[in-house]
Design goal:
The protein is an alpha+beta fold. The chain has a domain of about 110 residues: Aldehyde Dehydrogenase, Chain A, domain 1 (3-Layer(aba) Sandwich), CATH 3.40.605. Helices cover about 55% and strands about 10% of the residues. The strands form 2 sheets. The chain has a two-stranded antiparallel ribbon with strand order 1-2. It is flat, with a radius of gyration of 19 Å.
């Protein structure tokens, strides 16, 4: 059994020693503001509009699965590229196949006998931390859920010292 002490000896977890600079805070506030604007626009879309947006997102994720798996292995020296490719593709495609036929905009279900209508309503902007060792599944599968629900997603890699994650 691995105890907390043993785990801490094996994995050096850096602790933040400084707060965000005012410039960084302003940058993040601008991103949140832009995400709120995008979410407000997205709420005006029909189910068909949303589906036309989400499907290309998923296809782009599938198209980059091998490239991102290779980057993750090269940068972190962790994992097996072929396993990461499979994980990237499965997580992306399985998530999409699960949500693609579900209604996520407007009226979801009706219960005439109870005089009820279930409506989809976005909850706003979501922030997601993504493991640096596996880039694609969190981005592509996590992004497809909020996009289908007319929400915006911020996703950022968990920082690792000495590793910079370039944009694909």
């Amino acid at each position: 059994m691995i105890t907390q002490e043993v785990l801490q000896e094996r994995v050096a977890i850096p602790q933040a020693t400084e707060s965000l600079s005012p410039e960084r805070v302003a940058y993040l506030e601008k991103l949140v503001s832009q995400a709120r604007t995008a979410a407000a626009v997205f709420t005006q879309f029909t189910q068909e509009d949303v589906d036309r947006i989400v499907k290309p997102m998923v296809l782009a994720g599938l198209g980059q699965a091998q490239y991102l798996a290779r980057l993750a292995v090269e940068e972190t020296k962790l994992g097996v590229m072929e396993d990461k490719v499979l994980k990237n593709m499965c997580a992306t495609e399985f998530t999409y196949n699960y949500i693609k036929d579900k209604r996520t905009v407007g009226v979801i279900r009706e219960f005439p006998e109870r005089n009820l209508v279930e409506m989809a309503e976005p909850i706003g902007v979501i922030f997601s931390l993504t493991p640096i060792t596996t880039r694609l599944p969190p981005y592509s599968s996590n992004a497809s859920w909020p996009s289908r629900r007319a929400m915006r997603l911020f996703s950022a890699p968990i920082p690792m010292p000495g590793i910079v994650a370039p944009r694909p």
